[in-house]
């Protein structure tokens, strides 16, 4: 009998393959995206030191207050603009996009497009 791996296990494996290909540096940190069933999270990480430079999520009160739902494409787009604004405040304009093993469509694509429009380059 063929056993089927869980979706989260497949996603984790894809993410590790992606992480072997690139990492964030001080000049060009990594924009890591994670989405759960209820929320989305975005972090800008310097992997050489292991520091999170900027973080935003739909759990934050200021972001959550402006959203009707926290797990749709509109929420992802809002999160993209928020993370880009916070990054620009810290002086970060260039990043490497880490989709976290998720397929680049829907919410992940909306977050990336919104971050690009708000001034991040990747």
TrEMBL record:
GO biological process terms, semicolon-separated: translation
Superkingdom of origin: Bacteria
Spans through the membrane: none
Pfam family, one: Ribosomal_L18p
GO cellular component: cytoplasm; ribonucleoprotein complex; ribosome
Quaternary structure and partners: Part of the 50S ribosomal subunit; part of the 5S rRNA/L5/L18/L25 subcomplex. Contacts the 5S and 23S rRNAs.
Similarity remark: Belongs to the universal ribosomal protein uL18 family.
NCBIfam families linked: L18_bact (TIGR00060)
Name listed for the protein in its UniProt record: Large ribosomal subunit protein uL18
Natural source organism: Hungatella hathewayi
